[in-house]
Design brief:
alpha+beta, Oxidoreductase, short chain dehydrogenase/reductase family, NAD(P)-bd_dom_sf, SDR_fam
């Protein structure tokens, strides 16, 4: 993900990501967690979502 100067991550504390268990949604969750945001992730696959939660 490339930073958007108009919306720096540091201005936000919480994010909601849908489709978070794979693909772009998974990458977004990983990046937002790395930036220190509290992430609420939604997905159809509870197992994949649990694995993502363990990694981040």
């Amino acid at each position: 993900m490339q930073g958007n100067p108009d919306m720096p991550f540091s201005d936000y504390k919480t994010a909601l990501v849908t489709g978070a268990s794979s693909g772009i949604g998974e990458a977004v969750v990983e990046r937002l967690c790395a930036e220190g945001l509290q992430v609420h992730a939604l997905a159809r696959s509870a197992d994949k979502l649990a694995a993502l939660a363990q990694r981040t």
